[in-house]
Amino acid sequence: MIKGQITNNIRRLRFDHDEMTQKQLAEKTGVSRQTIVAIEKAKYSPSLELAFQIAHVFGCSLGDVFSYEIGD
């Protein structure tokens, strides 16, 4: 089985959007701040629905927020 990892640009996108806080992003997507922290640190992979919601908040595509890297 091929192992991969989801990475993200959430921290940079938050900074680029008037330094949005993790709490503000959490409120806009209906999750806890801790969930946003875990996603940013790649400790938790969001559901597809949450991933689309996060992209929508930033006004960009899913691929601009998340990427999938295949390891060896």
From TrEMBL:
DNA-binding among keywords: yes
Annotated keywords: DNA-binding
Keyword Transport tagged: no
Chain segments annotated as transmembrane: none
PROSITE patterns given in the database record: HTH_CROC1
Pfam families in UniProt: HTH_3
The protein's name in its UniProt record: XRE family transcriptional regulator
Natural source organism: Kiloniella spongiae
